[in-house]
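Hey Z.,

So I finally got round to the magnesium ion thing we talked about over coffee. Here's the setup:
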Amino acid sequence: TEFDIVKFSEEITEDMQLIAKQNQQIIYQHSGTSATVILDQSLLRNAIVNLISNAIKYSGENTFIEFNTEITPSLTSICIQDNGIGIPKEDQEHLFEAFFRAHNTGTIPGTGLGLNIVSRYVQLMNGQVKFTSNVNQGTSFTLSFENSHE
Ligand code: ATP
Ligand code: MG
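And the result:
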């Protein structure tokens, strides 16, 4: 059913800000003419929470995490960007495999399941996941969904 992605995203931002590190600021912004989308709210929430949790976990204190939503007539896109440790190029092709973790995680804990779940949920919503990442610079994940026109 239809819902307001701005309200929805502001709520997630508030919740995630509570578990962010010292002075890690999550900045949410929306652009577009509309704020209404038709997507599965609980699948989408779970995917976004996974991506923001990673952004928090894999970046340091005193950094910004940008969370953006955009609606154009044809597309809804959701982007989560951090200035964290990044993902080595040779690891990037395996990122959505269950239990896969990149080689630069050091002592940061994790099971390697979050992104596998994100990719499954996005697939269930007929969307796409893309990312770009550079080691020691940061990572950006984008989810995109074609808007349905009845
Ligand atoms: P969990 O199952 O608790 O989420 P995880 O965070 O290790 O564990 P994923 O979320 O699936 O697992 O991520 C897989 C791997 O991708 C991570 O182990 C990490 O190496 C890398 N990764 C994911 N997101 C980021 C990010 N924002 N910055 C840097 N590396 C990341
Ligand atoms: Mg994770």
